Amino acid sequence: MQTGEDWKNQLQELHRESYLWSLSCCNYDKEMAKDVLQNVYLKIYDGKASFNEKSKLKTWMFSIIKFTSIDFMRKYGMRVEELNADHYQISDEEMESESDKSNLFINILLSLSGQQRKVLTLAFYHDLTLEEIAALLEISIGTARTHYERGKENFKKHLTRYKLDTEGL
Amino acid sequence: MKTEDEKLREIFNMNLEQQQGAIPDFQPMWEEAARGNRNKKQLVWKIAASLVLLIAVGVFALLNRQNEVANSLPIASWNEPTKSLSLQGSEVIVLTKWTSPTDFLLPENNQHTK
Fold it and tell me: Which residue range(s) make up the domain with A105?
């Protein structure tokens, strides 16, 4: 039986990854990502979201973040399809003026489709397996694999084009 | 020799690590959630208390109204205020029995005139 303090400690350990996943779900809008995560904590505190231990704590937490971000997108009048569309194109001027590699990296991620971005972030940053990613995004493993392969190709193309640390790729 | 996936993992880690400064602290967010939860509970209690108060006032008003109706005079027992003038005790003055004091002067009533 977990105490409230154990529970809080586990959420605190996941906090960083939770925020980064929230960022990815909110198209890297920092304010919205923070609001989404705050709302997720409130849901957990209220008991509206309860962990049944059928999945890993991380995938459960990520799933709540995903659904909460969709609610927020709808609330702010954004169509959910926008999340999965190629909606961001990096201009050459933007690339020239871009000195911060981190922002460049985010812009490259944003130039991918929503699903490709999510699959790559979950695989390469959050270390989830394709099975876990498919379950989290509620897609088949085959679809997850397709997003993974195409996402990787697109990502590598952008990396080469914008010369962001591509050594060895 | 690193595989392609390992290199991509490195790039993701290196670049997302740079977002560290933008990550909000956990503690204030958790406390905010706790505060929000308390406020929500308080709001629920306030609404519940208001409803109980409204129901109590409604029931009180209804009972009060019912008592007023019960205490009011039923129409069947109403008497006209001047009823006492037409009654003398329980005896009703019958006008048909009334005779004039000079009635004996009339020929059909006066036996002496015959």
Answer: 86-169
Tens of pLDDT along A21-56? 998 898 888 888 999 999 999 998 888 777 777 778
Which are the contacts of B60, defined by CB distance < 8 A and separation ≥ 6?
none
> Token match 């002496």: residue?
B112
Say whether B12 and A121 touch across the interface (CB within 8 A).
yes
Asked whether residue A155 falls in the same domain as residue A112, the answer is yes
Instruction: Determine the residue type at A88.
Output: Y
pTM: 0.64
Same domain, A141 and A167: yes
* A72 and A33 share one domain: yes
**Exposed/middle/buried for residue A151 (C-beta within 10 Å: 0-12, 13-18, 19+):** buried
Q: How many domains does chain A have?
A: 2
Distance CA B96, CA A134 (A): 113
Gap between the Cα atoms of B2 and A149, Å rounded: 18
Per residue in A55-65, pLDDT (tens digit) is 788 999 999 99
Q: Does residue A158 share a domain with residue A93?
A: yes
Whether A80 and A90 share a structural domain: no
* CB spacing of B7 vs A152 below 8 angstroms: no
* CATH number, domain containing residue A11: 1.10.1740
Burial of residue A135 (CB within 10 Å: 0-12, 13-18, 19+) is middle
Is the CB of residue A121 less than 8 Å away from at least one CB of chain B? Answer: yes
How close, in Å, is residue A165 to chain B by CA atoms? 8
Determine contact, residues A118/A24, Cβ cutoff 8 Å. Answer: yes
